[in-house]
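Re: weekly structure request thread

Next one in the queue (455 aa):
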Amino acid sequence: MNNRGVVWGIGGAIATAVLVLACLRFLSPVISLLLLGAGLLIVWALFKPLQAACVLAFLTAAFPKAGIKVDGFPFPVFLFGLILAVGLATIALGWKRRAPTMDILLLIYLVWVLCRVVAVGLPAGFTPAFQLLAWSAIPVVLLVITTHLKGDGTPIRKSLERGFLVACVYALVQFVGGVVETAIPGLSYALGDDILEKNNVIYSSTVADFSKIPSTYQNGNIFGLAAAVFFSAALLRIAKKQSSVQDVVVLLGALAAIALSGSRTAILAAVIVTLVVFLRGGSLSRKLAISAVAVGVVMTVVTIQPGFIERYSIDNILASGGAGRSDVWSMVLSQLTPLEYFFGMATWRTPAEGIIGMMMQIGIFGMILLVAIIARSISRRSGMWVVWLTLAIGASIDSSYMLFPTWFIPAALAAAAVTAPARPAESQPKMVLPKSTTWTRATGPSRTAAGTSSV
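Done, posted below.
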């Protein structure tokens, strides 16, 4: 038996053991299937790391909240799947050396985050500590890795988009059949959790109350912001004439998802990004076509559910004070001390929405480091700016960055190939010396008979 057969045999034995253990230990078929799938994926990853990374990326975008509630915390299994996907992508595509400046920035930032977790997170309990660590450290590390990959991350990005399209289809199922009626415990939301606690109802004064479509993201705001990320990336590729059929499908699916999500933050982010992309130039006919399609999709949704018209109106947003955020922000800012502005809150309090909540957790000092790392990462990939503009708008308004998938976990891999990566230096055409040129280690290029240098 050759080495490959031995590996397959070992992998089969592991997968069988996992299946037996799952059947004996757990009553839930969902958990059993997850464990079996994990065992098979490990075997597959030994031979096809890039394909395995693509599968994990697909599952993360399609079912990000699949998991189980542990100690009051809905633990998403694909949080770790995404980390594994990045590791597999690094093995398959290779990793460039980082600049010393990036290493220093990243080290200082991670040490600062750890200090904040120990100082204010742990005293408040496991959930605040893990939440702070999850949104502030893990995505940044993933971002640095994915923006230093040598190979083209397009297959991973396309897998993410396909997974997101599955979530869009499920959102349509929820829209027709109802959020609670179509819920799948352990898959569309964490097993043991209560989907009714996720604020998925929009209260209306003019029509009957209706659902805020969370899809598999468990919260309408997170689903809407993720949709805005995929929308902005597809929009840029279409505007730059680098698009495929999948980009058009993603654009349509994201538009429908943004409208269905009930997230006014996502609407605002999509509108601003669209205006910025359009102002950067491009084909007028493409701009008109995209605008017509966007208006058509949104009008279809609001026609079927008239309550969205009231929710998305400027008057409603102003009257609600951004869902009460402006009042909360004013109160928080009046209570923070100057030191807390710069270093973060001294004792744990439930963070406010948006940029104020971020400042409460890591302080202005941590935010400066975060922006510096993101800025250096953006410079390595063409087109990443549009993703980060979308996420920056979202993070300045609501607290989606605190929840999985956070405001840049899905973008960390998607941004690895928003558009074609910058041309590496080694691919530049090399200067070919004339045949008449001779070189010596001591003197360098010699003169030709005509007395001219070959350089």
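Strands lie at 67-70, 73-76, 201-202, 210-211, 439-440, 444-445. Confidence is low (pLDDT under 50) at residues 420-455.
Next request, please.
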